[in-house]
């Protein structure tokens, strides 16, 4: 017996066949990898990926049934921006007798895939994924599992199932338009690294679209990618002002970056917006208490969590069916920094 539920699309014996080992060896390699040779372990792991096998961690119990647990994958547990969304999800699930299990992807698609595999092995009732870009293996696993999924990091034209969010592209475009209406013309743009962050890429595209709409050129000297943190905001301020682009405003697509730059301007005695205007993306409390307070975007993070859980439960409990897109929009908060 390999512990797979009746009717499972992919069984442990399929892994054994591809890896050319026994099902007992597959079981041992998955449960106690230290008990098999590295060569056998590598063959089993490769076979698992090839056939899309999800180990059943509930074998021997009521494993053919779904649990009352919802799996959530966020890019980072350290980042406080996700706390409000997580709280919104948890509040709704708890009221309806469901529990929340959380994993961090570390902004990596492969780590997200591993978390999804683990959740499916626990027979979760549904998934909530912050990211909207996934590995082909992750997508295939979700399709085979047949459980409802909500993506909520940004609106996407081709969601896996349901999406509840706002458009990062439209939000960045709206803020850039706002600065243009205030007669800023040399607008710098600072974002987190683009390579592993689709939301950052969407924000830069929104910024570029607003410039093009206004007939202004995209000047590479005015655009930076920096790591997260206050110090990176200071670094971005220095680099943009020294690069020759002569920015009259800087749009930081990250609130901590904007705070770092604003505090540095205060330290140097530079007037804001007299020396340079500063705008942010997100509305953590501190932005409203700086001198001057910083213009930013208010994003409905708690509401995103609440609605994500609600639409997921509607699907689980049979009250709704089919694809769904919920756009919760955003709001520009104009303050003294611009």
Automatic annotation (TrEMBL):
<dbReference type="InterPro" id="IPR000843">
    <property type="entry name" value="HTH_LacI"/>
</dbReference>
<dbReference type="Pfam" id="PF00356">
    <property type="entry name" value="LacI"/>
</dbReference>
<dbReference type="InterPro" id="IPR028082">
    <property type="entry name" value="Peripla_BP_I"/>
</dbReference>
<keyword id="KW-0804">Transcription</keyword>
<keyword id="KW-0805">Transcription regulation</keyword>
<keyword id="KW-0238">DNA-binding</keyword>
<dbReference type="InterPro" id="IPR010982">
    <property type="entry name" value="Lambda_DNA-bd_dom_sf"/>
</dbReference>
<feature type="domain" description="HTH lacI-type">
    <location>
        <begin position="10"/>
        <end position="64"/>
    </location>
</feature>
<dbReference type="GO" id="GO:0003677">
    <property type="term" value="F:DNA binding"/>
</dbReference>
<protein>
    <submittedName>
        <fullName>LacI family DNA-binding transcriptional regulator</fullName>
    </submittedName>
</protein>
<dbReference type="Pfam" id="PF13377">
    <property type="entry name" value="Peripla_BP_3"/>
</dbReference>
<dbReference type="InterPro" id="IPR046335">
    <property type="entry name" value="LacI/GalR-like_sensor"/>
</dbReference>
């Amino acid at each position: 017996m390999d512990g797979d539920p009746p009717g499972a699309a992919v069984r442990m014996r399929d892994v054994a066949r591809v890896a050319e080992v026994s099902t007992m060896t597959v079981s041992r390699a998955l449960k106690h990898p230290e008990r098999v040779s590295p060569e056998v372990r590598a063959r089993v792991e490769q076979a698992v990926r090839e056939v899309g096998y999800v180990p059943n961690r509930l074998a021997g119990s009521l494993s053919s049934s779904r649990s009352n647990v919802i799996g959530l994958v966020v890019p980072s547990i350290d980042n406080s921006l996700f706390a409000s969304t997580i709280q919104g999800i948890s509040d709704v699930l708890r009221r309806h007798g469901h529990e929340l299990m959380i994993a961090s992807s570390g902004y990596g698609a492969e780590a997200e895939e591993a978390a999804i595999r683990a959740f499916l092995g626990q027979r979760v009732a549904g998934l909530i994924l912050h990211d909207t870009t996934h590995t082909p293996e992750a997508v295939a696993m979700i399709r085979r599992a047949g459980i409802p999924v909500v993506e909520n990091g940004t609106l996407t034209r081709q969601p896996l199932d349901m999406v509840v969010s706002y458009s990062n592209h439209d939000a960045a475009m709206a803020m850039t338009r706002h600065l243009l209406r205030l007669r800023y013309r040399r607008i710098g743009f600072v974002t987190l690294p683009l390579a592993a962050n689709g939301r950052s890429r969407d924000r830069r595209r929104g910024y570029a679209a607003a410039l093009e709409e206004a007939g202004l050129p995209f000047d590479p000297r005015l655009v930076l990618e920096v790591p997260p943190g206050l110090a990176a905001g200071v670094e971005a301020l220095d680099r943009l002002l020294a690069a020759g682009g002569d920015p009259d405003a800087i749009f930081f697509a990250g609130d901590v970056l904007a705070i770092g730059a604003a505090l540095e301007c205060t330290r140097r005695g530079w007037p804001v917006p007299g020396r340079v205007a500063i705008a942010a993306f997100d509305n953590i409390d501190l932005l409203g208490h700086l001198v001057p307070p910083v213009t930013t975007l208010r994003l409905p993070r708690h509401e995103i969590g609440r609605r994500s859980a609600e639409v997921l439960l509607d699907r689980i409990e049979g009250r709704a069916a089919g694809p769904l897109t919920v756009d919760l929009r955003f709001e520009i908060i104009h303050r003294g920094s611009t």
